[in-house]
Amino acid sequence: MSDVAPTPAGSAATADRSVVRRLLHDPLGAVALGFLALVVLAVTFAPLLTPHDATTAVITDALAAPGEGGHLLGADSAGRDVWARLLFGGRFSLLGALLALTVAVVVGGLSGLVAGYVGRWFDTLASGAAAVLMALPGIVVLLAARSVIGPSAWWAMAIFGVLLSASVFRLVRQTVQSVRGELYVDAARVAGLSDTRIVLRHVLRVVRAPIIIQAAFIASVAIAVQAGLEFLGLGDLTLPTWGGMLNDGFSRIYQQPLLVVWPALAISLVCLALTLVANALRDALEGTGSARRPRPAPATSAVQAAPAPGAASADERTILQVEGLRVGYAMPDGTTTEVVHGVDLTVRRGEVVGLVGESGSGKTQTAFSVLRLLPEGGAILGGRVLWKGRDLAALSAREMTAVRGAQIAYVPQEPMSNLDPSFTIGSQLVEPMRVHLGLSRVQARARALELLDRVGIRRPEQVLRAYPHEVSGGMAQRVLIAGAISCRPELLIADEPTTALDMTVQADILDLLRDLQAELDMGVLLVTHNFGVVADLCDRVAVMQDGLVVERGATRDLFVAHEHPYTTQLFDAILDPAQVREPYRPPHADARPQEVGQP
Ligand SMILES: Nc1ncnc2c1ncn2[C@@H]1O[C@H](COP(=O)(O)OP(=O)(O)OP(=O)(O)O)[C@@H](O)[C@H]1O
């Protein structure tokens, strides 16, 4: 078995390179990009491409036809060289568009990022401002601004950038909100990465693509609007501009129609090229996200259990104490719905505690309260979560970040969704170790290799270079377990760690968890609905129903004798004879059933 599914050569190449490749393979996109590059080069090196000055009028050359008097594309009504004006005018058009674009992306992008990620009052305020900006008629605002600040193309474009920033804001805010809910962002938080790091690393990367696409459209709109203002005579008449040329040509359209054609061609071709590049970029960026996911491959590993830890008193060994925990969610009608109603729980060092109950009984809410990672709208309404005697609610965000990932680690239910598809597995393992353990990149990489080996991955080097879609679900869960134990946590919270996995892999993962727990002397809070898993791993168990712990005790005792009807119901569910499958019978009625393992 290979640890990594076969992928085309160079699968570890960066996504960026693949975007450029896809873009260049799109014929329209490549031609448009080439054209834009030519325009930029031409306007940059304009003095080398024409001997004429763009503003010098030679009245004897007025309305000269192309080729006449040394004028490549002719001369305008004042005898100024059209080719030179196109080249120098292009500078102002492109720089004006760049200014509008920069303002729109900086103002809209930053505010969208903060509003989408942090939310709260800033989101309300910024969303209101964006709605007002979008409701304003752009041209009217620019005309009003011109009457106040005069015919400055730069100011006009800066103001236009502010108006356009509303659309960037909405796009970025919406994208960030959707990323913020991704499990891999929660996983990064659990791994102890700060918000700044999460934004820089996971969020910006996702926001980048829509911004780039939007940027090309914004630039084309800015060029068109700028030209429109200049055409109306509202621009700076002292500068050579494409819109100004259009204005001049329009007034002489019957004498020299080509004077309209050249600037119109320049404006429309550049706008068209920007739109085509935006479309090609969108296709290229979308294409990179469509990597196929291989079939899960059975993972195999046998890790050696370490000797049991030395004895210590029960109190000394208590690391987590949950007392009277109540969790609630704010409802749209202003009320609060309580979903956990006073849960008590303790976990000792080196002990596995199972939190068992049917779906919706409040297990995950209890676990997330310990991590202080309740979803939006959720809050601890009462009770305490004591971590080694310290109330976690009293810790600052920075202190909590130091606890999460380093002291309390988390293994999620859905391994694939908890890995960021944009980064290699190696980079996702290395980052938290650099933050928490202060390791250099090389040291963290070496430790990541050791950890992958430790969790039973056969070709750690290869897996380190792989992207999440290139590994199986079981392997992804091993990677997450490696990440969770990378900082030698004292408590591991595992939320249904095998539910999403293939049956053949589940037992391996449970074995691995048991071995690592013993080796690291970790406390484990195991959230599950499966009494089989409880029997396999847990020392003690708490049974939850409707947000309450209805029964608790040592696993062995509870299996022998339980009192609460709900516990009986859960046991009955797993021991229901109706669920025991009939032995396999071959299609021929008279054939005898085969023994397991018989060929
Ligand atoms: N974001 C939320 N808003 C409102 N209620 C929620 C939210 N998340 C969970 N709940 C409610 O909290 C209760 C407990 O949910 P919890 O996720 O803890 O269940 P669970 O026992 O872990 O089940 P599962 O195994 O299905 O995750 C449920 O009734 C659920 O509807």
Automatic annotation (TrEMBL):
Residues 90-278 form the ABC transmembrane type-1 domain. It is found in: Cell membrane; Membrane. One of its GO terms (molecular function) is ATP hydrolysis activity. It comes from the Bacteria. One of its GO terms (biological process) is transmembrane transport. Gene3D superfamilies: MetI-like (1.10.3720.10), P-loop containing nucleotide triphosphate hydrolases (3.40.50.300). Pfam families: ABC_tran, BPD_transp_1, OppC_N. Residues 320-571 form the ABC transporter domain. Its main location: membrane. Residues 288-312 are annotated as: Disordered. Belongs to the ABC transporter superfamily. Belongs to the binding-protein-dependent transport system permease family. This is ABC-type dipeptide/oligopeptide/nickel transport system ATPase component/ABC-type dipeptide/oligopeptide/nickel transport system permease subunit. It comes from Cellulomonas oligotrophica. The lineage of its organism: Bacteria, Bacillati, Actinomycetota, Actinomycetes, Micrococcales.
